[in-house]
Amino acid sequence: MHTVSATETMYIDGRWRPAASGATREILDPADATVLAVVSEGGAEDTDAAVEAARRAFDTGDWPRTPTAERAALLRRVADLLQRDREEIALTESRDTGKTLEEGRTDVDDVTAAFRYFADLAVNTSGGRVVDAGSADVHSVVVHEPVGVCALITPWNYPLLQASWKIAPALAAGNTLVVKPSEITPLSTVHLLRLLAEAGLPAGTANLVTGPGDPVGARMSSHPGVDLVSFTGGLASGTKVAAAAAATVKKVALELGGKNPNVVFADACATDEGFDTAVDQALNAAFIHSGQVCSAGSRLILEESVHDRFVTELARRARLIRLGRGTEPGVECGPLVSQQQLDKTEAYVASALAEGAVLRCGGKRPEPSETRPSTGYFYEPTVLDRCTREMRVVREETFGPILTVETFRTEDEAVALANDTEYGLAGAVFSADTARARRVAARLRHGTVWINDYHPYLPQAEWGGFGKSGVGRELGPTGLDEYREAKHVYENLRPAPVRWFAG
């Protein structure tokens, strides 16, 4: 893997540079807490310099005025470079976040798909929309222009993927940008900025500041030179971003996580194959990337008649999940990303047990092994049974390998439980009855609903949530529109005096 040093992680106006203060931060490998890299620790001065570079590039540079087809061609070059560096980037992502190497490879492929999708979409929607003005003497058209300077703030769990969901449409639309990755997982974003430069993106068009939310993210959100801020992260931080952006009335897009229900009806388990699928998908929903997924199916809502059999098998399989360093062959689940996240997970489990939940498996750190150093941030996949909606672990986004189990008897009760959350990002329903599954899906107040599946997404389909899961959408045509302004151009082909005033 390319060794990252502190002079290589701030990219401003086409130049790699250290932080103005000279400050640095150690990036730790979550599998053993050793130092993986040293990066620059940016501050307000670096942020201002990056925004000024992006502002200058937008106001006087080439990129916003580059034909859409040429912008799309550059995005496709970036996609090719991502595939060229697939193994290196996947290894970086695995070591930085703790996820398995195979998950890292999947992320690179998904990022590649996002760049290609937005390249194609921008070209296919660049012609504008003719509006019928009701007169042959009028030519009326709605065109789209870039918003301007975009501040992009990304989370630690999917740093490369979430960066691509913002950077690709922002560039496709002709914007300039400043991106701030999470201060604990910045390495793959550094690599992506290198590929943008290699592909020929003009200096100042994309800028990178590595550093903490305060002051870097806070300054990006409030900066008068920024026209749009897009943030993915926690609810508390998201509300601060929105408040900071309000003073300058900039566009805001927020994806703030979820507390996602996975509703399983008894008829989904009526056959051995159906039962096996439903259990397997419940594990997949809850424990991919150690549950550190905004759309994780952390709330299993089971029809009561299948509860005992289902939970017994679920717990049995959860105990068999192979924990270890994500780069090791055969490992299915890596560590949590940090000591802070490990402590948070332990606190959630402790509170659940104190409130009456029944521990079916997990609930502790695993014994150390060759692939699980004692210094790593590992936690066993945990199933908490007999949970109720009043419990903190049921209501709050835990972002760890914790699955809670609730039960229902009727369809209405299942829907009520699934919608009883202040979030509304994603959810699923498993049923062999197609009419029931579609009926329940229509009633769920969540931005993405899977039927008899969990977790797949498509670049061409919008992603985002209801309620406190945020505002705006990423991916799909709406994901491009977030980074464009609509302009109506009305042309009178036969101008004449109006004679409104006698004059």
From TrEMBL:
Which SUPFAM superfamilies does the annotation name? ALDH-like (SSF53720)
Q: Which pathway does it serve?
A: Amine and polyamine biosynthesis; betaine biosynthesis via choline pathway; betaine from betaine aldehyde: step 1/1
Q: Which controlled-vocabulary keywords does the entry list? A: NAD, Oxidoreductase
Question: What InterPro entries has UniProt attached to this entry?
Answer: Ald_DH/histidinol_DH (IPR016161), Ald_DH_C (IPR016163), Ald_DH_CS_CYS (IPR016160), Ald_DH_CS_GLU (IPR029510), Ald_DH_N (IPR016162), Aldehyde_DH_dom (IPR015590)
Which residues are in the Aldehyde dehydrogenase domain? 16-489
Indicate the residues that form the catalytic site: 255
Which superkingdom, per the lineage? Bacteria
Task: Give the matching Gene3D superfamilies.
Answer: Aldehyde Dehydrogenase, Chain A, domain 1 (3.40.605.10), Aldehyde Dehydrogenase, Chain A, domain 2 (3.40.309.10)
Claim: Oxidoreductase is one of the keywords in the record? yes
So what family is this one in? Answer: Belongs to the aldehyde dehydrogenase family.
Q: What is this protein called?
A: Aldehyde dehydrogenase family protein
